[in-house]
Amino acid sequence: MRRAIIVAALAALTAACAPSVPGSSSQSGSEPASGDRLTIGTTADVVNYNPLVGNSRTDSWVTNLMYPHLTQMDQTGKRIPYLATEWSYSEDGEQATVKLRDDMKWSDGKPVTADDVVFSVTAVQKEKFGVVAGLITAMDRAEATSPTEVTFHLKRPDGTFLDNVGFWLPIVPKHVFEKAPSVQKFANDSNWVSAGPFKLSKVERGQRYIMERVDGFGPGQPTVKEVVFRVFPDVNTEVLALRNGEIDMIGNVLPPATAAELKSDPNVKLQQIPSLGWAHLQYNTKRKPLDDVRVRQALAHAVDYEAIRNIALKGYAKSANSSVLTPSQPAYADPASQEYAFDPAQSKKLLAEAGVSNLSLNMVYDQADPNIARWAPMVRDSAKQAGITIKLQGLERNTYLDKTDKRDFDIYAGSWAVMDNPPANLGLAFKSGGFINYAQVSDPKLDDLIDQGQRALTQEEAKKPIQEAARIIHDQVYDNVLYVETFNIAHSTKWTGFKPMPSELLSILNPLSLAAAKPAG
């Protein structure tokens, strides 16, 4: 989803805010690295300190260190305890119960309790904002049955609910946020009351964000005393700062070409992170002639997938077998799924069968996305071989998002940042009226299969209907999945101990990872 869903929506704001050039000021933070301080480069300031609505990478990195989630994930994407110690469904699936740690405190000394969890999820449900609201539609109400136990009463069985609310919902302090008339509009931009491994202590906008270690933090006290996020104008400046020893890590994922250049630097380690998302093309099924599956299949056969992965991604990508159940989801992936072959002759044949000639379509994409900006012309050029004209529309980020949200395109080129829970994700992206159903898919059989997968309370029960749903999406080309990227995060060889998570946003900047980071040797 776009968060980072989630989301591409929450995941991809990359505009920087006029930072100074490294070393141009005595306040630039260019002190030598030490075990007391871990300095991370970013290309964007914090836009929103409210974790329930934050939408830039830096928002997520900073607030994730301040506000707990019920669960985290391990390197395979499996949910692991964090604020929650255990979770389960009732036998009939109409209730979900979460038990909490009893040793976590807000920075003002008050305990983190079930009331905070209930307040956070109820605020999102009531005000209906963000991707989380779309993930908890099965919830009727939440109840604090004890200071360390929450019971979620569900309108219908939903085996995706606990994974969704556990991983995606930040928990905020009720006694602070309830004072605001609207939780969604609460700026939370000073006097922070937090409960993470680090607390935000100083902000120099356009320069740096300083976070101090929280001693006695329940899930594990961090090794490093201070985390500093330094703001840079672009990735190239970050790379220079890393090589010069001004920073210890580049927070954002490296463009493939940059990763290839850094591979041989003996002072830099590239940490490779698998993606839980994918890059794709979606065709607007409500526009003629894209409402004809033969036309969509013709377009799928007009893409040179291998060339995109090898040239645009420099080999840092693998095939998804044209399936929304990618190799990053081994519990769901269908080994029978095969990638559409690049076959211009087959494209021409399918178009002729559909009675379509001189096909000309517009394709929108975010011109600031370095990967898509590289492969968008390749999609155009390979389509020419099939007699298809694709007119590229590289757009400024906000314009691009506006067009996709309004479904104002023929072809949408983009990527999902985190698609970590197939039954839930397919509902959002492909079910009729889904929150991120940009292709405007409306398929009753598909809807029914997704519903079956969501009602299942175990992965084993959900697998069959979800695999069948994925086959429909593949055969009908409701989504043309191009590749799954292998992300590269660069850090100094002076540091070790990071705990990677399979996500562009979480990578090695997640709370568990930064708490475990330590000087090498």
TrEMBL record:
Region Disordered: start-end pairs: 19-38
Range of residues in the leader sequence: 1-18
Keywords of this entry: Signal, Transport
One Pfam match: SBP_bac_5
Domain Solute-binding protein family: 80-431
Keyword Transport (UniProt): yes
Comp. bias (Low complexity): 19-35
Molecular functions per Gene Ontology: peptide transmembrane transporter activity
Family as reported in the entry's similarity comment: Belongs to the bacterial solute-binding protein 5 family.
PANTHER family membership: OLIGOPEPTIDE-BINDING PROTEIN APPA (PTHR30290:SF9), PERIPLASMIC BINDING COMPONENT OF ABC TRANSPORTER (PTHR30290)
Protein name: ABC transporter substrate-binding protein
Highest classification ranks of the organism: Bacteria, Bacillati, Actinomycetota, Actinomycetes, Streptosporangiales
